[in-house]
From TrEMBL, chain A:
Belongs to the cytochrome c oxidase subunit 3 family. It comes from Leptolyngbya subtilissima DQ-A4. It comes from the Bacteria. This is Heme-copper oxidase subunit III. It is found in: Cell membrane. InterPro entries: Cyt_c/ubiquinol_Oxase_su3, Cyt_c_oxidase-like_su3, Cyt_c_oxidase_su3-like_sf, Cyt_c_oxidase_su3_a-hlx. The keyword Membrane applies. Signal peptide: none annotated. Keywords: Cell membrane, Membrane, Transmembrane, Transmembrane helix. It is a multi-pass membrane protein. The chain crosses the membrane at residues 28-51, 71-88, 100-118, 138-160, 181-200.
Automatic annotation (TrEMBL), chain B:
Belongs to the heme-copper respiratory oxidase family. The keyword Cell cycle does not apply. Cytochrome c oxidase is the component of the respiratory chain that catalyzes the reduction of oxygen to water. Subunits 1-3 form the functional core of the enzyme complex. CO I is the catalytic subunit of the enzyme. Electrons originating in cytochrome c are transferred via the copper A center of subunit 2 and heme A of subunit 1 to the bimetallic center formed by heme A3 and copper B. Residues 24-535 form the Cytochrome oxidase subunit I profile domain. It catalyses: 4 Fe(II)-[cytochrome c] + O2 + 8 H(+)(in) = 4 Fe(III)-[cytochrome c] + 2 H2O + 4 H(+)(out). PROSITE patterns: COX1 (PS50855), COX1_CUB (PS00077). Keywords: Cell membrane, Copper, Electron transport, Heme, Iron, Membrane, Metal-binding, Respiratory chain, Translocase, Transmembrane, Transmembrane helix, Transport. It comes from Leptolyngbya subtilissima DQ-A4. The keyword Acetylation does not apply. It is an enzyme of class 7 (translocase). This is Cytochrome c oxidase subunit 1. Pathway: Energy metabolism; oxidative phosphorylation.
């Protein structure tokens, strides 16, 4: 073994490089996971489209259609939050931790608002999960997406907590980047979902 | 030099391989070493193979006479359902995951998988969903009876009225197995993309790794559709929705689409790594480079892409419109082209070679013969008029058992024997291996060939009693089935006794080329003393160029000739 390998600074350097590489793997793996996840949504979307085009008495009796106004507000909030989270990340890159926390918290608030809005909408709807195929697919799609929003907000909470740990934000960057990517993903899914369910009635 | 560094050196020389490779206890522990996880997968899978095989033998026992006299019909339904489910989700998938887990990091020159803890978690889900599946034998009404494909509306029937019934446990187990497989797939894809040793370009990667990559891509992009279908079916069963219930406006054929969009490509998840195994085994025992390496690799990728476009051929008799049947007949037959490329490449590899008929080579050759037969009947089944004629007969059962047992299981055996010395550091007993091959090859053909004439005569599948005119071929098939059961005994004896008593294996007992053969048997934790720098392609048999420019085992590089 050469003495060069035993030089402590060199070791520290290679450890850092290895950590960096590890972080790259994690991001790559996470993107691969999201691609796989999107196929589940795609399957549900395909299912919805097949039902919608094939079933003649699609809406449950007594239901005219879905109210679009409130979901639209919800959509605007969720889509905007994608920009807010982008700025939060920018602050982190500039090492402005308080800026990061403020915008990150705002994203969490917007995500929570979306969940609240969806809960209010669900409670006011005249049909349930078991009211025909329409009821089933509606709650399956919005519910499955809602679970993802909830997961996103939860992850954001964890990242926010970690930002208060001393010296953490070398190790926390992957978490922040992945959470942010997840949030954009959830957002894009919602846009497709909104068009499919609320616009194409 | 700091004290810490000196301590590190001292610790290293005291314990050359932390968690010594031959300590058997670590195979029962939570380990993140890909080699331990690989063997854990393989052993677990083999236990389920034996259980699934026993169920099959009860079925063959029932079918030895035309009357339903051994088990009653509900039990028979449960038998073929659980046999199919276990053999796919509990045997072939985990077995091939285990094999890939063990081999891929070694073959690409990595110290481990990209996410070792995720890897372990994916494995430990296997006993969990295996237990869940087995628990269905003990709930009221017994296990699922709707076949391994769980088509509604049959699978929506719940005669016991219990919330926890065999079908629900089945669906939960399948969904969990999906979670485990996706975790595994993310890991494999990341590992192969990101962790290849320096110098190992895409076209210097062994064909086996290419086939694993292809298979795992199918898992990533096909499996979610099965998961979606399983979730919806579960909701129909337990929450009162009506996605697939025709009585309430649902669409049972949509389930078939969800199911086959994954479950047809799933056969490539199984067979592709076997293609990879053939591509590794033939060059070694024929002492020749793999013929048309690039074509073999590219054909795997083409099969992966085409595999997503053929699922409707399982639904030719499900009211599928004619134009769609034509389209899928065409795409199905198209798959035989890249597959044929591979077969010709193997034949050309073996052609004129100096063959060494050791057990791995025998199993690979036997597997190839069975695969050829399965391929021919596969093209026949791809033709709509023929498929409609033999739909739901034993012809189909015979075809896929030639794929699954004839090619896949024999391919798995080839892989196990070939890499056994590497995995355990011991040589297996050649005589027992050859006996195992002879029994298996005869058993496969006795068991599964008669199913073809039976199918052509019109014997339906999934029945426990049949017209006496089918008795002749059924008796032969049953005897073949029992022979297959017997054939596992010399295998178990061989593996157990040679692992304990077998003579020590050198690093490279076959004089093969590949990174895994440059390090000691069994490989140390973290595999490589020094990460290899790859300087040539994977199959340089007969050439004098060396595979790597440094020495990954910290010893002299052995010369290949």
């Amino acid at each position: 073994m050469s003495t060069a390998n035993l030089d402590p600074t060199l070791n520290a350097h290679s450890v850092h490089a290895a950590e960096h590489e590890e972080e790259d793997h994690r991001m790559f793996g996470f993107i691969v996971f999201l691609l796989s996840e999107s196929v589940i949504f795609l399957s549900f979307f395909v299912g919805y489209t097949v039902y919608k085009t094939n079933i003649t008495d699609w809406l449950p009796s007594g239901v005219e259609g879905l109210e679009v106004r409130e979901p639209l507000i919800n959509t605007i909030v969720l889509v905007s939050s994608s920009f807010v989270i982008y700025f939060a990340e920018r602050f982190l890159h500039k090492e402005n931790l308080w800026g990061f926390r403020a915008f990150w918290l705002l994203t969490m608030a917007m995500g929570s608002f979306f969940l609240y809005g969806q809960a209010v909408e669900w409670m006011g709807l005249p049909f349930g999960f078991t009211d025909g195929v329409f009821g089933g697919t509606f709650y399956l799609l919005t519910g499955f997406h809602g679970l993802h929003v909830m997961t996103g907000v939860l992850l954001q909470g964890i990242m926010l907590g970690r930002s208060f740990l001393p010296n953490n934000y070398a190790g926390g960057e992957f978490g922040v980047a992945a959470t942010s990517l997840f949030w954009h993903f959830v957002d894009v899914i919602w846009i497709i979902l909104f068009i499919l369910i609320y616009v194409w009635q | 030099m700091s004290n810490a560094s000196l301590d590190a050196i001292a610790a290293k020389s005291d314990q050359p391989f932390p968690g010594a490779p031959n300590n058997w206890r670590r195979f029962f522990s939570f380990s993140t070493d890909h080699k331990v996880i690989g063997i854990q997968y393989m052993v677990t899978a083999f236990v389920f193979f034996l259980i699934g095989g026993l169920l099959a033998m009860v079925m063959r026992g029932e079918l030895i006479t035309p009357e339903a006299d051994l088990v009653d019909r509900t039990v028979y339904n449960a038998l073929f359902t659980m046999h199919g489910t276990i053999m796919l989700f509990m045997w072939t998938f985990p077995m091939l995951n285990g094999l890939s887990n063990y081999l891929v990091p070694l073959m690409i020159g990595a110290r481990d998988m990209a996410f070792p803890r995720l890897n372990a978690a994916a494995f430990w889900l296997v006993p969990v969903f295996g237990t869940l599946l087995m628990a269905s034998f003990f709930v009221p009404g017994g296990p699922s009876q709707s076949g391994w494909w769980a088509y509604p509306p049959v699978s929506l029937q719940n005669p016991t009225g219990n919330l926890i019934n065999g079908q629900v446990l089945w669906l939960l187990a399948v969904a969990l197995s999906g979670v485990s497989s996706i975790m595994g797939a993310v890991n494999f894809v990341t590992t192969i993309f990101r962790m290849r040793a320096p110098g190992m370009g895409w076209f210097r990667m062994p064909a086996f790794c290419w086939t694993v990559l292809s298979a795992q891509m199918i898992q990533l992009f096909g499996l979610p559709s099965l998961t979606a279908g399983a979730v919806m079916l579960l909701l129909d069963l337990t929450a009162g929705t009506s996605f697939f219930d025709p009585a309430k406006g649902g669409d049972p054929v949509l389930y078939q689409h969800f199911f086959w969009f994954y479950s047809h490509p799933a056969v490539y998840v199984i067979i592709l790594p076997i293609f990879g195994t053939f591509s590794e085994v033939f060059p070694v025992y024929a002492r020749k480079p793999l013929f048309g390496y690039r074509f073999v690799v590219v054909s795997s990728v083409i099969i992966t892409v085409l595999s997503a476009m053929v699922w409707v051929h399982h639904m030719f008799a499900s009211g599928t419109p004619s134009w769609m049947r034509m389209l899928f007949m065409f795409s199905t037959m198209l798959i035989s082209v890249p597959t044929g490329v591979k077969v010709f490449a193997w034949v050309a590899t073996v052609w004129g070679g100096k063959l060494r008929l050791d057990t791995p080579m025998l199993f690979a050759l036997g597997g190839l013969v069975c695969f050829l037969f399965a391929g021919i009947t596969g093209v026949m089944l791809g033709a709509v008029p023929f498929d409609i004629h033999v739909n739901n007969t034993y012809f189909v059962v015979g075809h896929f058992h030639y794929v699954i047992y004839g090619a896949t299981v024999m391919g798995i055996y080839a892989a196990i024997y070939h890499w056994f010395p590497k995995m355990t550091g011991h040589m297996y007993y050649e005589g027992l291996g050859k006996l195992h091959f002879a029994l298996t090859f005869i058993g496969v053909n006795l068991n599964f060939f008669p199913m073809h004439p039976l199918g052509l005569m019109g014997m339906p599948r999934r029945v426990s009693s049949y017209d006496p005119e089918f008795a002749y071929w059924n008796v032969i098939a049953s005897l073949g089935g029992f022979l297959l059961g017997v054939s596992t005994l010399p295998f178990i004896l061989n593996i157990v006794s040679s692992w304990v008593l077998g003579k020590r294996a050198p690093a490279n007992p076959w004089n093969a080329i590949g990174l895994e053969w440059l390090i000691p048997s069994p490989p140390p934790v973290e595999n490589f003393e020094e990460i290899p720098i790859v300087v040539s392609g994977p199959y340089g048999y007969g050439s004098n160029e060396s595979l790597v420019s440094n020495n990954p085992a910290g010893e002299l590089i052995s010369e290949h000739s």
